[in-house]
Write a structure and sequence with these properties.
heterodimer; A: Rossmann fold; two-stranded antiparallel sheet; 42% helix; globular; B: 348 residues; alpha/beta; 2 domains; six-stranded mixed β-sheet; 10 strands; nucleotidyltransferase activity (chain B)
Amino acid sequence: MACESGQGCGAGQGCGTNACSSENLCSKDERVFPPNGKKSGVCAKCKEQPTSEDFELCCTCLHTNLISKFKTAVNQNSLVTPADHVLVAFSGGAASRVALEFLREIRLRQQTDLDASRGQGTRVFGLGVVFVDEAAAWSGPSLDLEHTIEEISSIILTESERPVPLHIAKLQDVFEAEGLRSSVGLDEDVGIRSSEEMLQELLRNVEDVTGKEDLVTYLRMQVLQKIAKEHGYTKLVLGVCSSRIAARSIAATAKGQGYSFSADIQYWDSRWPVTVVLPLRDVLARELDVYCRLANLKTVVNKNTLHGTDKSKSINELSREFVSLLQEQNFSREYTITRTMGKLKSFVFNTPPVGPIEMALRRRRGIETPKPETVSAANTVPDLLCPICSAPLDVRDFLHGDVEFTDKSSNNAESPSVNSKGDLPALSSDTFKNMCCPSCRFQILPKNEPKTESMVKALPEVMRDRAVANFEDKQCWMRSRIQEYLLSDDED
Amino acid sequence: MVRHCELCKAKRAALVRPRNRQQVCKDCFYTAFEEEIHQTIVDNKLFNRGDRVAVAASGGKDSTVLAHVLTLLNKRHDYGLDLFLLSIDEGIAGYRDDSLETVKRNETQYGIPLEVVSYKTLYNWTMDEIVKEIGLKNNCTFCGVFRRQALDRGAAKMKAVKMATGHNADDVAETILLNIVRGDIARLARCTSIITGEEGALPRCKPFKYTYEKEIVMYAYFKKLDYFSTECTYSPNAYRGFAREFIKDLEAIRPQAILDIISSGERFRIDSTAKMPEQGLCERCGYISSQKWCKACVLLDGLNRGLPKLGITRTRGKGLANGVENASGGGKLASKDDRSPSKANIDF
């Protein structure tokens, strides 16, 4: 294990385990400090190892720094417990690569401890990896998919520890009612083509470039959730780092997502069937990139995500460029933006539940346990999520809505009707629109009526079901407000 | 083929509205533009009947259009407002003297009185003199702090109960982004309010909060309004420039984005426990301040004592605190010259 202090392990065994490619010994006795405390090309922390790529830390110290941030995030927010079965969403990029590496490292350590205690300790969390192929979203053939999968498999299987299962999914799997491929090697089977067509038809309805990119992101999350749920995972780890949060903060602000955005950037997000956790929230993208190179961690370039949309028309891309420009001027800018947005009030589902064992662990670690929010009796407004992006809806939107939606929907949306199959209640396109957040209404749903209708029909079942549930919750809530004025049928 | 106005369907479309890319004729544009501002005023209850309102006028496009539209709407919808123009003469040769001429013409054109308050009268310093002292770095800090107070003092002198400023949607969006980027959660919470300083004697409102800058320029252009369009001699501000450029790029991709940024700013779930500075009164001049002395008094004191960086650079324990103590205890201890603010002229 790498020395935690960054000051040398003192054992003369070298700090670099699997994280460090350096073979130099790291002994306190052998350290030589420059007289002025500074030395060019030498690690700013241990003052011993050489640095490269204009980065101030050596590989060992960078590893110590990153894993301590990772562990702090995991421990303070109870992101991963021994009872968990953790699924890492692996894109092939540096963030998810490091997240996987650190989880493996922590698990290996826990396993060693467990073995040493002769089974007296707690369990060790389970680990799995999922990769989602998005080629179909961009109407193109899957570029080098087999090669990408091979590379990912080689990353997953390199270590001699317990095997980590790899799940390969396609974005269009969101349309499949059941059945997913859980092993490497994809055989085209019946139904895949039609789901691919469904996906492309859905995306064709979205005219806005940013809207299309965002819809792909929302669909990806649904696929990840589906896989996690079907394979019994209890946590989904995303490699969302501070730099990405900074860029997304600006983009979300420009998309009018100010109310709901704080839900997306917390360590813990249990609004999904499988809780999503962000253990790399406090790490910069550059640190992760440099670490991957220094520690020889192989990353995979997924060509299918590079040729997607016209980047010059994307608010996401423009925001990324804006933040990286600011970052060039000031190295702490991304942190500042993330911290600012981190101060926004999160939602109930962003607070990890604290059981008696966790409470005791927290007390031992000196971590303050947040008190649960007391909900006043008057506050009975239902917590609704947007069917498309799952953003919490602002009460101002779903109560009053835009006039253009509310007026129309009040006439024709008395109750959800049952569709031709007889199994799924269907909402009118206006009512569906009314159940969505303003951002999805604007950038994803088409402006004109017939197109909206076909778009709503083309959405995956999980999204349409959410809209129906929203509608029913809203109706229930409205009914509760007028209950005292309603007469029952048997009342004279 | 002639493109017809999307609103009246009769006249030839003369322009594309930057706000929503609607193709409209000039008359429909004027009507929509004016009525949207009227709606903002009514929905947000910006004014009460009989209010004496100071219209902050710099002579630039925003304040000129604001003076024009407020005069027009006051008559059209019978707001019953007593409007007057309030200008600040910062003492910048070749810039403010020229723009003031424009404001003086506006006075005649709109038939509302004009009051000019100068830095020289209030602080005994002009911006030209301040720049000579401090250079071109931080000069905007002096100007901004002094102008804010000067406007309040001028409005108080004229017994105004409200002030209307020409901040437009682009300005508000830009401020929101800047507050995110520099981590100022307290200002982020406040900056979207359409009325600020309601707890004080002189609330300020922004009738153009939802009005696009390009539409203001368009309105001024088509109405042939008389405004001054030169940038301030000392104005270049790279930091704001980044945000401004980003907003322009956003607007090109999605015009709605400016309003979306404002909507986001209004809806951010900011914890009410976020630390807000407590408002008090300046011990020296009586202006609102969260410190012992208001910022203007600290800056002015620095200028008068030959320490122009006082209040700008962070020299905790040596500079500001001691500076205030010395000056308040010993009066003009180290006065560079015998300048002193002629506060006696204008009570605040």
